[in-house]
Amino acid sequence: MSTPEIRAAERLSSAQEQTQLVVDEPLSLEARDDAEQVVRALPVQSFVTVARKLREERRLDLLLPHATAEQITGLFDLDAWERDRLAIARAREWLDRIVEAYRDASVERGRLTDLIYDTDPEMWILANAPATAVADLDEPDNDEQRQQVLEDMAALRTWETPDGHYVVGVRDDELGNMTLRVLFAVYDDSLTEGRKLISAIKWSVHSEVEEELLRWRKGRLADLGFPEWDEAMRLFTPLARDAVSGRRDDEQGPDAHIPEQVQRLAGHRSILPPASLGVTRDLLRRVMQRLDDDEYDLRLREFLLLANELMAAQRFEPGDEALQERAVAQAQATLNLACELLLAAEPQADPEDFIAARIATVGLRKLFRFGYSPLAKLRKAALALHRDGQVSLASVGSLLDRPWGPAVASLSRWYPELPVDGKANSRPLRNLADLARATALIGEAGALAQLAFAAQGLAIDPVWINRVDEPDRLHLGDLVRTAIVCAQLPGSSTAEGLRPLGPSDLRWAANNLIDANGRLIAPVTEMLRTKLAAIDAEDRAEALAAVVLPRLLMELAGLEVRDDGEPDLTKVGGLLTIQQVGVWIKTTIGP
Question: Which superkingdom (predicted)?
Answer without folding.
Answer: Bacteria
